[in-house]
Design a protein that fits this description.
about 550 residues, alpha/beta, six-stranded mixed β-sheet, six-stranded parallel β-sheet, 17 helices, about 35% helix, globular
């Protein structure tokens, strides 16, 4: 045995021991030991087989006591087949829907008619029940394609479904080699391995990355923490404990995977470590919402760290894991944000086959009309709460208000109207910036922080890019525009502020603010951008042209 090979085996062995001894997986070595056949080691009839039918059929019968032998075969055939013209991503998305929501089978009624029934293949409610969820990790498994033969490091199965792919390198090899040398090769030579895949792990033991099908290497990310309080470690052991713990594994599988169809292409999204931890803190707050008068807290994740996806993940988990049919009100303060976030929900499949426009409140009256019903979602601007409350809306179902950029939208008459109109609603505030020390209103509306992912940690985790300041003041010393005061006054007049907003604006303009204006030197245009943000939620944009 070569030295390099023995080093690889050491990493593989330590991974197998952790999965077996600490996380409760059954771990088996296939290389030179697997016997093919129905009664063989894993029940595979061929090295081309990737679905372990023995465990798959057992799960169908255990989780669906009503199922017949004919329906078991029907479910298996449906699960394994795919269109020959379908892309690998299309196949993966179709299989994921079956894994999460069940496989349709035909049931004959006594009157001779037929109806569709869903057969579950994973028990998401009882992740640790070994009779209902069988976790198996196979080392050194031979897999044959049409032309090529490969042997994988570790493939993880749940109820016979290959959901986890782990490619390992020795400590001295860069993790990216696992991507470029092995994973991409397997995509070409044994693509069936990835039909059902949920998680791709790449590691050299001391560093680990996780990603999804279709992701470029730069979008694979670390899993450094088991709780937000930890400093973090990039080691494989941390990732295994964070993802492969049975409860976490099935939670991620069910609630933290999205297929985003924005821009005419499909991108598979797995929650990053900070999103998973933060959203689950929000879910815990929702569980005890009545104890806190509906205040779920403030979710502060810095700009660029995927806040919109976090809102989608939270909505998805609440709707899947809690009884009833809540209405989720997604609140913004700008039309652009409202369109962006409603499109994200639509493109990620949370609105079903309905267009986002059907869920957008077009006016104050339309908003109230929607709130009196029970739509799954409502997307609205805070400004739509423009009617004085005559009678509050107290429905039988839950209403959850998710306020984007909460530090901007919880002030003034509109916010008061919202709270008065929906006194029993649960409220969570999402923000990309920390609350000011004297910001008592946001905390009074939502409660304290439930999740913090600040800029420093996001840069350390490479979840966002660092910012650098370069002093360019010397280039604009000669710039002068005497019309600035008139233009600001015109913008304020056009905004039609109420007395409370005017008072706040006067207070802000007491501060010394340097405004840098262009004359006709267009070469400096990229240097200048004005955003004057009022604390009431109003954004006045001054775009000054020559």
């Amino acid at each position: 045995m070569s030295y390099d090979y023995s080093e690889n085996i050491l990493v593989q062995e330590s991974t197998g021991h952790l999965l077996a001894d600490e996380l409760g997986w059954q771990v088996e070595l296939a290389y030179n030991q697997e016997i093919l056949g129905k009664n063989g080691t894993f029940g595979r009839s061929s090295y081309k087989d990737i679905l372990l039918v023995r465990y798959f059929q057992k799960a169908l019968r255990t989780l669906n006591p009503w199922i017949t032998d004919a329906q078991v075969i029907e479910a298996q055939n449906t699960f394994e087949k795919h269109l020959s013209s379908a892309s690998l991503m299309q196949i993966n998305e179709e299989k994921y829907a079956y894994i999460r929501d069940g496989i349709p089978v035909t049931e004959k009624k006594p009157n001779g008619q037929t109806e569709e029934k869903r057969a579950m293949i994973i028990d998401f409610q009882h992740p640790d029940d070994m009779e209902r969820n069988h976790f198996l990790a196979v080392k050194e498994m031979k897999i044959h394609g049409d032309l090529y033969r490969r042997r994988t490091d570790i493939v993880g199965f749940v109820n016979g479904i290959p959901l986890l792919f782990v490619e390992l390198k020795k400590n001295s090899v860069d993790v990216q080699n696992a991507y470029t040398d092995n994973y991409t090769d397997y995509l070409d030579t044994i693509p069936q391995l990835f039909y059902y895949n949920a998680f791709l792990m790449l590691s050299n033991g001391v560093e680990a990355k996780v990603g999804t099908l279709g992701s470029k290497y730069e979008f694979f990310h670390e899993w450094k923490r088991l709780s937000e309080q930890e400093q973090g470690s990039v080691a494989l052991e941390t990732m295994l404990r964070g993802i492969c713990k049975k409860e976490n594994f099935l939670d991620l599988l069910e609630n933290f995977i999205l297929y985003d169809h924005s821009g005419g292409k499909t991108v598979k999204i797995l929650a990053r470590n900070h999103q998973y931890l933060g959203v689950n803190e929000a879910v815990k707050a929702y569980e005890v919402r009545k104890l806190n008068n509906g205040k779920l807290g403030v979710f502060w994740h810095t700009q660029g760290s995927g806040k919109s996806y976090s809102m989608v993940f939270l909505s998805q988990k609440i709707r899947r894991k809690f009884a009833g049919s809540p209405t989720i009100v997604v609140l913004t303060d700008r039309e652009e944000l409202n369109s962006q976030i409603s499109d994200t929900f639509e493109n990620c499949g949370l609105l079903g086959k309905t267009k986002a426009s059907k869920f957008i409140a077009t006016s104050g009256e339309d908003l109230i009309s929607k709130l009196k019903g029970n739509p799954s979602f409502i997307f609205t601007l805070i400004q739509k709460f423009n009617k004085k409350v005559d009678e509050p809306i107290i429905p039988d179902h839950d209403i959850i208000i998710m306020s984007d950029e909460a530090h901007r939208s919880q002030y003034g008459v509109f916010a008061d109207n919202m709270v008065g109109l929906l006194p029993t609603a649960s409220r969570i505030g999402f923000t990309g910036t920390p609350l000011l020390s004297n910001d008592n209103i946001t905390e009074r509306t939502f409660g304290g922080y439930i999740s913090i992912y600040d800029f420093k940690r996001a840069v350390e985790d490479k979840a966002t890019v660092p910012l650098y300041y370069e002093n360019r003041g010397e280039k604009i010393l000669d710039i002068h525009n005497p019309d600035i005061t008139d233009k600001i006054l015109d913008a304020i007049e056009a905004a039609d502020l109420d007395p409370e907003q005017e008072e706040k604006l006067e207070h802000e303009f007491e501060k010394e603010i340097h405004l840098l204006l262009l004359n006709r030197d267009l070469s400096l245009w990229p240097e200048i951008l004005f955003h004057i943000t009022l604390i009431c939620g109003l954004v006045v944009r001054l775009c000054l042209s020559a």
